[in-house]
Amino acid sequence: MKIAFTFLTMLFMATVYGQSKNFTVTLDAGHGGKDEGAKYFGNKEKNLTLAVALKVGKILEKNSNINLVYTRKTDEFIELRKRAKIANHANSNLFISIHCNANKNLTGNGSETYVMGMSRANMNLEVSKTENSVIFLEDNYQKSYKGFDPNKPETLIGLQILQESNLTSSIDLAKKIQNNFSNSNAIKSRGIKQEPLWVLDATTMPGVLIEIGFISNKNDVSVLESEKGQNDIASAIAKAIISYKKENF
């Protein structure tokens, strides 16, 4: 009986988090407005991340079955918690946060893709519970959600399974992104990292934070600030998203 209920819970969660005909991707350009991010060689991180995010979106827009949501499309300050809420409320299938790395040691270079650190797993579960609580504010929620109750222990089992699945999916996407960087002449790959980053913990779908290169490195920044370099980076990210979608949806 418990196995059957858990299975039904997983099916429900798949529906809640947007795994339907249309595939939704939230693109998050890091920093913005008064939060300029790292600044080196006359460049501001907030400008480079926005330029690349918009280029990723332009590529993905060619796919009619991909819906795009942006946390920002202009130079504006967006709180971290709002970035996560935008993705959660859109029932996104993927959350892509784009940043630039920086280090006082100017020799550091290359791209990295981060996934959620398991040390914050319980926080992500709490976020899932909170996001689901809005169900009770809807009319006919018992009929619409077939008795789904975020407060029941059985439901929390389903959320925990979903959380583990999200991490697996995030790692899968991160591998695709970094492999594309490895096969590109734009920015070298430094691999996949796992860290407790709040913006990834607070989203309720698979997600990654991409450090597209070191703004503090002269070789990287020459790529990051160029139109060709930005297009190459955006292409590597967009191709990984499209590949992920084909394999999973």
Q: How are the secondary structure elements laid out?
A:
Elements: H1 2-16, E1 23-29, E2 39-40, E3 43-44, H2 45-60, E4 66-70, H3 80-89, E5 94-101, E6 111-116, H4 121-132, H5 141-144, H6 153-182, E7 189-195, H7 198-201, E8 207-214, H8 218-224, H9 227-248
Parallel strand pairs: 1-4, 1-5, 5-8, 6-7
Antiparallel strand pairs: 2-3, 6-8
Helix pairs in contact: 1-6, 2-9, 4-6, 6-9
Can you put this structure into words, describing what you see?
The protein has 249 residues and is of the alpha/beta class. 48% of the residues lie in helices and 18% in strands. It has helices at residues 2-16, 45-60, 80-89, 121-132, 141-144, 153-182, 198-201, 218-224, 227-248, and strands at residues 23-29, 39-40, 43-44, 66-70, 94-101, 111-116, 189-195, 207-214. It has a six-stranded mixed sheet, with helices on both faces. A two-stranded antiparallel ribbon has the order 2-3. Strand 2 and strand 3 form a beta hairpin. The longest helix has 30 residues, at 153-182.
What brief labels describe this structure?
single chain; alpha/beta; six-stranded mixed beta sheet; 9 helices; 8 strands; disordered N terminus
